[in-house]
Design goal:
alpha/beta, seven-stranded mixed β-sheet, 7 helices, about 25% strand, globular
């Protein structure tokens, strides 16, 4: 996938290609990178929605949440398609005395050794960065990574006025439809600015 031609596929960029993301990082074309962890995700922890445990962050980018949650005591694994953001993340983590596990990989081709290993998946626009036709496959990835009583906490980009992407917009109805088969509860809470919904999703399994 990383060697795909960089021409757009239909009317969208080739987001399936690692080189697409690598080049955007190399050019500094990373408007999604706020340079700090996202407040609503940290607030979910402080509000007691996210217990400390083993966490995986698919499409982690430069991983501000990876280091933030590692500093809070989580055993964090960050996964990204491109090398450049992981290099920046590794340097920052080392400078902060943190040691998250970092993996450069296609999230749709992860080793089976990761199956069922995580208490939580932290979702930060990975769902809205991948090609929309890959979203069902993404739900399958989340399902296989989590322990039976695990949970997904994430920020989903739901701006109704968004055209094109990435990020590609999603709707509350679509998110609920896709995740309901593998989660007992899919609680989506709108942000004040209408750009995002915070998702708190508990797996079917041991959780009642």
């Amino acid at each position: 996938m990383g060697n795909q031609d960089m021409t757009s596929q239909g009317n969208r960029p080739p987001v399936e290609a690692a080189n697409y993301w690598q080049q955007r990082y190399e050019k500094g074309d990373t408007g999604w990178d706020s340079g700090a962890p996202e407040g609503p995700l940290l607030q979910a922890f402080h509000d007691g929605h996210l217990p400390v445990g083993k966490m995986v962050v698919p499409g982690c980018g430069t991983g501000w949440e990876v280091t933030a949650f590692a500093a809070l005591g989580f055993d964090v694994t960050g996964i990204d398609f491109a090398a450049a953001p992981l290099q920046a993340l590794q340097a920052r983590a080392s400078a902060e005395g943190l040691a998250p596990t970092l993996l450069q990989a296609d999230i749709f081709a992860l080793p089976d050794t990761l199956n069922g290993q995580f208490d939580s998946v932290l979702e930060l626009a990975c769902y809205c960065a991948i090609a929309p036709e890959q979203r069902d496959a993404y739900v399958t990835v989340v399902d296989r990574l989590l322990k039976p009583d695990g949970m997904l906490v994430g920020m989903f980009y739901t701006n109704p006025n968004k055209v094109g992407g990435p990020p590609f917009k999603a709707t509350v109805e679509e998110i609920q439809m896709r995740f309901a088969p593998v989660f007992a509860t899919v609680d989506l809470r709108p942000s004040a600015d209408g750009e995002w919904h915070l998702g708190l999703c508990h797996r079917k399994g041991l959780r009642q």
